[in-house]
Amino acid sequence: MTTGFVARGATAGSVSRRYQVFIPAAWSAEQKWPVVLFLHGAGERGDDGVVQTTVGIGPAIQKATGRFPCLVVLPQCQRNASWNSPPMQEHALQAMTDVISQMNGDEERLYLTGISMGGYGTWDLAARQPGRFAALAPICGGIYRPYGTGSRGIIRETMRRIGKTPVWVFHGGADEIVPVTESRQAVEALKAVGGDVRYTEYTGVGHNSWDPAYAEPELMTWMLGKRRLTTDH
């Protein structure tokens, strides 16, 4: 099988969209493989099926492929939409499901991470799919709060659904695009419901906290060491 970044397509409902999957050089059908689902930021939206590999986890993989002994699924959100949109979440999940079935992915070792808009999407998708993922890594994101809804109630319910799923949150302390208070509030809310959370805040770092986050030596070891919880959330 071809390894590295490979272009593919996924059909959700009647709509087909392109995505990319990173296949490690050591891939073999003789074993099951952990699968990481990556949700990109607003600047990478489109339909070319490629640009989402150029910011975030893609460059991190290219710099040190040995740190990523896993399948990484990189769907692309369409223009004028977000990862909080059910059709976009359906597309992302379908791409991940296809990779699991076609490349011997391990259902017990599915992970979710995202940056900026994708950080918001990480929290939201995890709450909509409680217990599906073994660990989460939202970066410079926050909790999506629709207009007219109570902020505290939405955050609390999101964290209740995420429950004991291990989460490692990252944010830049000087972020002028997504305020660092978004992640601080999420972390405190998850702690309040007894969640398993760790938080890294980069002092003086602006919106691009994903480069230092994905370069963290412990991140992938921490993530890939988790297995899906068997208890109810």
Strand order of the largest sheet: 1-2-4-3-5-6-7-8
CATH level 1 class label: Alpha Beta
What name does CATH use for the topology? Rossmann fold
Radius of gyration computed on alpha carbons: 16 Å
The CATH architecture classification is 3-Layer(aba) Sandwich
Helix content: 25-40%
- Segments where pLDDT lies below 50 for 5+ residues? none
What does this structure look like?
The chain is of the alpha/beta class. It has one domain (4-224): Alpha/Beta hydrolase fold, catalytic domain (Rossmann fold), CATH 3.40.50.1820. It is built from seven helices and eight strands; from the N terminus they run βββαβαβαβαβαβαα. It has an eight-stranded mixed beta sheet. Helix 3 (117-128) crosses helix 4 (151-162) and helix 4 (151-162) packs across helix 5 (180-192). It is globular and about 45 Å long. The protein starts with a strand and ends in a 9-residue tail after the last helix.
Question: Helices and strands in order, then pairings?
Answer:
Blueprint: E1 4-12, E2 15-23, E3 33-39, H1 57-63, E4 71-75, H2 86-102, E5 105-115, H3 117-128, E6 135-139, H4 151-162, E7 167-172, H5 180-192, E8 197-202, H6 210-214, H7 219-224
Parallel strand pairs: 3-4, 3-5, 5-6, 6-7, 7-8
Antiparallel strand pairs: 1-2, 2-4
Helix pairs in contact: 3-4, 4-5
